[in-house]
Design brief:
The protein is an alpha/beta fold. The protein has one domain (4-210). Helix content is 40%, strand content 13%. The protein has 6 helices and 7 strands. The chain has helices at 4-27, 37-54, 69-78, 127-135, 149-161, 198-210, and strands spanning 32-33, 81-84, 117-119, 139-143, 168-172, 181-185, 188-192. Strands 1-3-5-4-6-7-2 form a 7-stranded mixed beta sheet. Helix 3 packs antiparallel against helix 6 (198-210). The chain starts with a helix and ends in a 9-residue tail after the last helix.
Length: 219
């Protein structure tokens, strides 16, 4: 078992990593449309500070119960797969992690969560940051590289139209997932091999079911 001194050193390393990530994020010139603008950015920074101060690794877990009948029906109509997984861990780390689902649904992750919003192709957050966002109750909608621009725009608009894009991220997948489109929440995955109009309904019901169901509910 780690000594108190080792735990303090680990906490210090996580805090320093967080500060470095925040400084780097401030300098990046990517185009990111976030819901709520500056107010939400301040809230995100506050959430990061809370999570770092707490040291991460909350012991809570979200439910792996069967999806609702509505979600199951809309996923089936869209030809999508629904999966629920165990909690594969919540520790903070800056090391590379091999995740047990693709896209990831839980596991050790970077101390800094990715911000809510819509990311352009090529500007996706790092995987460790997106997993941390899942732990905060976010739903992430991802498209496979190569999806036509018109369909990407439709996907972005559909997510933003539901509750103003609340607690959602939309970005290009960076893990080589086997789906054209996928949505993830903490311990849950909706994977769609084909992009069809019915996918929008499946994503809508997935968000309704799993937004803010993760161990750490951060505004």
């Amino acid at each position: 078992m780690a000594s108190r001194k080792e735990e303090k050193e680990q906490r210090k390393r996580e805090r320093l990593a967080c500060e470095r990530e925040l400084e780097a994020a401030a300098k990046r010139s990517r185009r990111l449309r976030t819901v709520g603008g500056g107010v939400l950015a301040v809230a995100a920074l506050a959430a990061i500070a809370i999570a770092v101060a707490a040291g991460g690794g909350s012991s809570g877990t979200s439910s792996t119960a069967k999806p609702s009948a509505q979600l199951a029906a809309s996923a089936r109509a869209a030809g999508c797969e629904l999966h629920s997984y165990p909690n594969f861990g919540q520790e903070h780390t800056t090391a590379k992690v091999t995740y047990k689902s693709n896209p990831p649904t839980s596991g050790p992750h970077n101390p800094v969560p990715a911000n809510d919003g819509i990311y352009d192709a090529g500007g996706s957050p790092a995987v460790g940051n997106t997993v941390h966002a899942l732990e905060h109750g976010r739903v992430e909608v991802q498209w496979k590289p190569g999806l036509p621009a018109a369909q990407i725009a439709q996907l972005q608009s559909a997510v933003n139209a539901q509750n103003g894009g609340r607690h959602a991220l939309v970005f290009q997948n960076q893990t080589g997932m086997p789906y054209q489109v996928a949505a993830t929440a903490w311990q849950h995955l909706l994977g769609c091999p084909r992009f069809t109009p019915a996918v929008f309904g499946a994503i809508r019901d997935f968000r309704t079911s799993y937004t803010d169901t993760a161990p750490e509910k951060i505004p």
